[in-house]
Amino acid sequence: MTYFSGTVCAVPTANKQKYRDHAAKAWTIFRKYGATRMIETWGADVPRGKLTDFYGAVQAKEDETIVFSWIEWPDKPTSDAAWEKMMSDPEMEKMFDMPFDGTRMIYGGFTPVYERGAHSGADYYQGFLLAVPEKNRQVYAEMADEGWQMFEKLGALGMIENWGDYVPHGKLTDFYRATKAEDGEMPLFSWVAWPDRATCDAAAKQMEADMADFDMSRMPFDGMRMMWAGFEPLFDSADMARAA
Question: What is the pTM of this model?
Answer without folding.
Answer: 0.95
